[in-house]
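Session log. Operator J.P. requested a structure for one protein chain; no other inputs attached. Running the standard single-chain path with token output.
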Amino acid sequence: MATKAFDPSKFRNSLTKSIKGMSSGFNDPQDWISTGNFALNYLLSGDFRKGVPLGKVSVFAGESGAGKSYIVSGNIVKSAQEQGIFVVLIDSENALDEKWLHALGVETTDDKILKLNMAMIDDVAKTISTFMDDYRAMDEDDRPKVLFVVDSLGMLMSPTEVNQFEAGDMKGDMGRKAKALKALVTNCVNMFGSHNVGMVVTNHTYASQDMFDPDDKISGGSGFIYASSMVVAMKKLKLKEDADGNKTSTVNGIRAACKVMKTRYAKPFEGVQVKIPYETGMDPYSGMFDLLEAKGLLEKQGNRYKYISSTGEETLEYRKNWTGELLEMIMADLPAKEQQMVNIANADEEAVDQNEEPVLNE
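Structure written below.
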């Protein structure tokens, strides 16, 4: 007797209706938001134009003054608004002034952004949960694209911390804050997955005491890191050079050393130093030359650097000339160039396999 084919549609519909927040199928990101820096975008997503995705949770962590808020509450919010994505900006530090946001190109009108000041993890969770309940109740065609930005997770408090402060008891919350942050991020990941809603957060780091693992540690426990799709660790370095790249004795900005600790869309544990001068702000091409040189795409010849395109054309220029138009040329050519390199590597492997001598049985 022939076995009846299994029809999963009824089973799938039954599950998605009975279990709140559950969806079926794959939820590959469709909308990406630029960080404002091409090199950092590439390390995060494998694409110079993309950065962080909707439908996921991304974390930028670093010491004070490392440029976290500049990239997240500035560049990413601005890029989101340019794509028609509504931003809910949750400020737990009471530090994001309207004048500062305007200077970074962020629009603060009610139709572009909702800024909320919150101090409690529970309040952030309730806000997002309430929003998602209303969001799911909308007709699918009416649902907007929304980005939640929390700056920062590290300054949010648990109810235990508040109660202890009011009682004059500062013994700590016995790890309750770490558990609350993990619950917040994990629930957001599950709620956002199948919708055009995402979240980007900043957090603090502290110096590692482990001599075998010297990377700075992200505060708030490791639980929420596991649930995040992207994690960038940032370190503050001094920028001692002028607008022309000449060395100076004065500090004219910061060099944000960004290391991608986790990403599901590119190779992790790669980094780039992004320059943020005080006077001019970040150049979107900052760090691009060093990234391309590290990948072996820009080869030094004497005191100049050569790039060979996917079609075999050579470009040889001094380092100072590798700026806007020339870098754009490489960015446009790189997908074909990388595929070409993969094909060559595969051909070499096949040649080695064919030339291997057969192993004779004894």
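Operator note: The first strand starts at residue 32 and ends at 33.
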